[in-house]
Amino acid sequence: MQVDFEKQGGLIPAVIQDAKTEKVLMLGYMNQEALEKTEREGVVTFFSRSKQRLWTKGETSDNFLHVVEILKDCDEDTLLIKVNPAGPTCHTGADTCWGEKNEPGQAGWLNHLKAVIRDRKNNPSEKSYTASLFEKGTNKIAQKVGEEAVELVIEAMDSNDELFKGEAADLLFHYLVLLEQRGLDFDEIIDVLRSRHSR
User: What are the boundaries of the region Phosphoribosyl-AMP cyclohydrolase (predicted)?
Assistant: First the structure.
């Protein structure tokens, strides 16, 4: 990767972001040797300004930052490195250097659910309700989505919020199963919504 190290005196900032939760974990600095080592070994290595040497995050704590993707900005003088952290990132023991919990937002949890649904499809188990839906095929899954939609409408006319939320969750779950059955990702549906919103 070609980066302009000379613009800032040989060091460039590297923003570290969790690839799954999208939380910003920390900021470090790299020289060319640190970037090359990071690319070669797949774990994040910085140039430590205090130690004046290369420093691999996790070399003493084992809380390594495993590289998923490295991106450079438009000026080619800042990096965004998406990682899978092996533990807390901050030297204080906190998840991030800003004291935030490294957890996905509520909507981000859907990515976990989608992964579970995909796993049930690809690795079916007799005990899995989700796997049994895939076994029955598209028509049955679509029918189940319709049933859940009707149940949600019925609960919407009542005043019991807990029952309404339960039916809403059932509908969303079966909808995600139907998308997986069709080979579509929820993000594609979000893209459609975004395109409509921009009109």
Answer: 1-109
CB distance 113 to 176 below 8 Å = yes
pLDDT at residue 149, as a whole number:
97
Query: Which SS3 state, helix, strand or coil, does residue 185 take?
Result: coil
Residue 88 has φ and ψ, to the nearest 5°, of: -55, 145
Q: Is 66 helix (H, G, I), strand (E, B) or coil?
A: strand
Average of per-residue pLDDT values in the chain? 93
Give me the amino acid identity at 165: K
38-52 pLDDT, tens digit per residue, is 999 999 999 999 999
Measured CA to CA, the distance from residue 30 to residue 46 in angstroms comes to: 5
Question: Which two structure tokens, joined as six digits, stand for 145?
Answer: 């989505």
Task: Encode pLDDT of 90-137 as tens digits.
Answer: 999 999 999 988 876 666 778 778 989 999 999 998 899 999 999 999
Dihedral of the alpha carbons of 100, 102, 105, 108, in degrees to the nearest 10: 160
DSSP category for residue 43: B
Identify the three-state secondary structure at position 65.
Answer: strand
48 contacts 55 by C-beta, under 8 angstroms: yes
Q: Around Cβ 118, how many Cβ atoms within 10 Å?
A: 15
pTM: 0.61
C-alpha closest to that of 134 among 169, 182, 172, 186: 182
Strands (DSSP E) contained in the chain are: 12-18, 24-30, 45-48, 53-56, 65-72, 79-85
Residue 12: both structure tokens together:
């460039």
